[in-house]
């Protein structure tokens, strides 16, 4: 099956346009001030307006409170909320009731026990995203360009609809797709020439690599 492709951390019209032209199914905007990919919600809304309806717009937040979410939802008008913090099932149900938007819950993974809490979110989150746990010293919960052991996903395969992220790039995405049941891949730093700066050539190479992986698995 054709995997979903999410390009995350977009900040410019050129990068948004290229992602959509190359067939991204999702584009993500980061609302986390410490990130080099952080974007003002009003600017994100303007960028999204160019491509609205052609691609799913994802708002990436980290333990955001209602006030922050109100701002992001009204200015960006996302299709999906990606919750990349320690949001509980109760908090997710509250957010879904407030905005009526689907939620993609992120789990940060390094060891098998990092997946222990997933069951509590089944039937609560609409989709899951498994990312690598941040390395020691990083201030970012995601966007660190590090991978985790994809073999850990075997315990969940067949049970969940999930995307995979963490250190993906043109050279490893085929293996990531072949060795898991991920229905989508999500990339940020692997298509950047510097933190927060998307490189259109690297984006092209990533889309080419996913297309090649699809052909091989057909
Ligand atoms: O990218 C960020 O700066 C970021 C900040 C806060 C929360 C999530 C963030 N990014 C997410 O990280 C993965 C991709 O990371 P990688 O660079 O490809 O390893 C993706 O889920 C982004 O949404």
UniProtKB/TrEMBL annotation:
<dbReference type="InterPro" id="IPR001240">
    <property type="entry name" value="PRAI_dom"/>
</dbReference>
<dbReference type="GO" id="GO:0004640">
    <property type="term" value="F:phosphoribosylanthranilate isomerase activity"/>
</dbReference>
<dbReference type="Pfam" id="PF00697">
    <property type="entry name" value="PRAI"/>
</dbReference>
<keyword id="KW-0822">Tryptophan biosynthesis</keyword>
<feature type="domain" description="N-(5'phosphoribosyl) anthranilate isomerase (PRAI)">
    <location>
        <begin position="5"/>
        <end position="208"/>
    </location>
</feature>
<dbReference type="InterPro" id="IPR044643">
    <property type="entry name" value="TrpF_fam"/>
</dbReference>
<dbReference type="InterPro" id="IPR013785">
    <property type="entry name" value="Aldolase_TIM"/>
</dbReference>
<dbReference type="InterPro" id="IPR011060">
    <property type="entry name" value="RibuloseP-bd_barrel"/>
</dbReference>
<dbReference type="GO" id="GO:0000162">
    <property type="term" value="P:L-tryptophan biosynthetic process"/>
</dbReference>
<comment type="pathway">
    <text>Amino-acid biosynthesis; L-tryptophan biosynthesis; L-tryptophan from chorismate: step 3/5.</text>
</comment>
<keyword id="KW-0057">Aromatic amino acid biosynthesis</keyword>
<comment type="similarity">
    <text>Belongs to the TrpF family.</text>
</comment>
<protein>
    <recommendedName>
        <fullName>N-(5'-phosphoribosyl)anthranilate isomerase</fullName>
        <ecNumber>5.3.1.24</ecNumber>
    </recommendedName>
</protein>
<keyword id="KW-0028">Amino-acid biosynthesis</keyword>
<keyword id="KW-0413">Isomerase</keyword>
């Amino acid at each position: 099956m054709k995997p979903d492709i999410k390009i995350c951390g977009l900040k410019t019209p050129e990068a948004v346009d290229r992602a959509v032209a190359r067939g991204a199914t999702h584009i993500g905007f980061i609302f986390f001030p410490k990130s080099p990919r952080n974007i003002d919600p009003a600017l994100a809304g303007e960028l999204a307006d160019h491509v609205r309806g052609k691609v799913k717009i994802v708002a990436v937040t980290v333990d955001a409170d209602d006030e922050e979410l109100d701002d992001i939802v009204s200015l960006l008008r996302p299709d999906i909320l990606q919750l990349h913090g320690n949001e509980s099932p109760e908090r997710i149900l509250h957010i879904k009731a407030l905005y009526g938007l689907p939620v993609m819950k992120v789990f940060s993974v390094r060891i098998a026990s990092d997946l222990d809490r997933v069951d509590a979110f089944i039937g609560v989150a609409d989709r899951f995203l498994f990312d690598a746990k941040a390395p020691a010293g990083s201030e970012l919960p995601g966007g660190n360009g590090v991978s985790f052991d994809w073999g850990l996903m075997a315990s969940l395969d067949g049970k969940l609809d999930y995307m995979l992220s963490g250190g993906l790039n043109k050279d490893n995405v085929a293996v990531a797709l072949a060795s898991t049941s991920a229905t989508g891949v999500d990339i940020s730093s692997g298509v950047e020439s510097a933190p927060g700066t998307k490189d259109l050539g690297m984006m092209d190479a990533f889309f080419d690599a996913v297309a090649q992986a699809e052909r091989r698995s057909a």
